[in-house]
Amino acid sequence: MSAPTPAAGTAAGATPGTSGAPERQRGRGRWRLVGLIAAFFVLLCVVRVVTGADQLTTAGTLGVTLVAAMPIAMAGLGGLWSERAGVVNIGLEGMMIMGTLGAGFFGYNYGLVAGVLGAILLGALGGVVHAVATVVFGVDHIVSGVAINLIAAGLAGFMAAVWFTGTPGGGPRQSPPLPTPPTITVPGVSDLAATVSETGWFLVSDLANVVRMLTTQLSSLVLVCLLLLVLSWWVLWHTTFGLRLRSCGEAPVAAETLGVNVYRYKFLAVTISGGFAGLGGALLAMVSSSIFQTGQTGGQGYIGLAAMIFGNWNPAGLLGGSLLFGYTGALQFRDGEVTVHALLLFVVALLALVAVWQLRRGERRKAVGSAVFAVAFLAWYLLTEVVPSEFTEMAPYVTTLLVLAFASQRLRMPAADGQIYRKGSAG
After folding, report:
1. Is 61 domain-assigned?
2. What is the pTM of this model?
3. Which residues of the chain have a pLDDT value below 50?
4. CA Rg, the chain, in Å?
5. Structural domain containing residue 163
6. How many domains are contained in the chain?
């Protein structure tokens, strides 16, 4: 019988958040992440000044970034809940599709709140199907997730034709216009930030644009999603419930010996996972576009999974990855061909810094590779004035591949993630 790991050894009743060295290590990791995000933002401000591409950090660009990032973050948060309990959830895309469908049907027929709750409900139903297949029947997690994605896409197309054909403004592939969540503006703060941002001062005006993004016409549903990220972090890392759930993803056999009902926690985590992905679908249908359309997710469930991996299965890192992917997606709506061209210089500087870091770690071969890519991007920047619109549209997907390639060395997934667990195996 396996010895209990630290995660499972306290799962039955120890007070979370008192583990000494691991807690200090997590604290250092959080501050390191904050410092990294701050450094990225400063570097982006430098590129704005050097290239004159002011659209890189305007409040409009940042606002579109936040709206684009939240569906990705919700899908990623769903994946985080599921995988922290040891269940790989490739079906996030399908659950998000069900969320868009739920938002379209319930939102059109019963209003805003019903639309959001309907999206969460249909997404959670997808989570229940995945949980039954993987937790109860032991189906391979990848096979179950892929099946859910295929079924959800077909079901959404069929139900859209049934529900919306002949409706005012609707059709077989889209719903009529949906109610949109109210927005929030903070008087005084928003106006002051707008005044400061117009000065164009390095870093000061850029930070003012961040304040404007958060205080000017901020969607109430986006704010709810930001709060859910914080709440998930607290529940998973600072409550006994979260400790037990995470023990199911680290050492389920050891957790079972301590009285944890592993099946229950896995089932609940995967169901919650589907609900979060469904909420991401509601964001797409009711905030990003104000209408349901078939194929609306466009692979954002997969990008959410990538953001979760980039964030190392942690809500703070997940949010950072989502903002990165959302930012590259937002640029195509903000004079994309010019701003993405300016962003090439940001990539050059970033790759150069990575090469120096790798060289200091003694990883000479990797440092040479990073330097070669930096030179290639620099040549691209110097020899062109704009980038093709096709590349602008595919920038989020290219960013996904690059980020996962560079982040793969520091990732640490839950130890039992993806493993088939059978009740009673501890005996």
Report:
1. yes
2. 0.89
3. 1-19
4. 22
5. 20-179+225-281+291-410
6. 1
